[in-house]
């Protein structure tokens, strides 16, 4: 995923955004992190984090501890043991190597694998490109930009026929009238 036009990578390969530091927590330098995807614990798998500080500076840090804390995660970094040190990280974006991710056991995919896929409907053909994900209480919605404008597709298995990562495609079977509902 390019950041300011630069593809972020490290020795382990491409990086992806895993969260953002929203606040400090306590006096011992812990950080409160909002995961990039709600409920994601991917940060716990990170061996090394690339930290993009609000100043634009990039640095590498090792996570000592990651634990759930409500909708957030608490992160302790090596070398950050006081609230004064932690304050410098507020607003920082956290990136980790895709290679550090655990393979989902249920066959599901990570968002970074889906982002940018071309969405093709059985009836309508190309609907557009999968741009983002909206998290809602009922189910997530895929935001697709293309010839029909912005289309919101429910991210449910009943509508998805196939995902071919090598071809960069998601094949769907949309119900009649769904495209018109987004107008």
List the defining traits of the structure above.
2 domains, SH3 type barrels, Elongation Factor Tu (Ef-tu), domain 3, mainly beta, disordered N terminus, eight-stranded antiparallel β-sheet, 7% helix, six-stranded mixed β-sheet
Structure notes:
Binds ribosomal protein uS19. InterPro entries: PRC_barrel-like_sf (IPR011033), PRC_RimM (IPR056792), RimM (IPR011961), RimM_N (IPR002676), RimM_N_sf (IPR036976), Transl_B-barrel_sf (IPR009000). GO terms for molecular function: ribosome binding. This protein is mainly β. Strands 3, 4, 5, 6, 7, 8, 9 and 10 form an 8-stranded antiparallel sheet that branches. The protein has helices spanning 83-87, 111-114, 178-181, and strands at residues 2-3, 6-7, 9-10, 13-25, 30-35, 49-52, 58-61, 63-69, 72-77, 93-97, 118-121, 125-134, 141-146, 149-154, 160-164, 169-172. Mean pLDDT is 85; it is low at 1-7. It is elongated and about 60 Å long. The protein has 2 domains: 2-100, Beta Barrel (Elongation Factor Tu (Ef-tu), domain 3), CATH 2.40.30; 111-181, SH3 type barrels (Roll). Helix content is 7%, strand content 47%. The protein contains 3 helices and 16 strands.
Principal-axis shape: elongated
CATH level-4 homologous superfamily of the largest domain: RimM
Number of helices: 3
Secondary structure category: mainly beta
**Total discrete domains:** 2
CATH topology of the largest domain: Elongation Factor Tu (Ef-tu), domain 3
N-to-C SSE string, H for helix and E for strand: EEEEEEEEEHEHEEEEEEH
Query: How large a portion of the residues is in β-strands, by DSSP E?
Result: over 45%
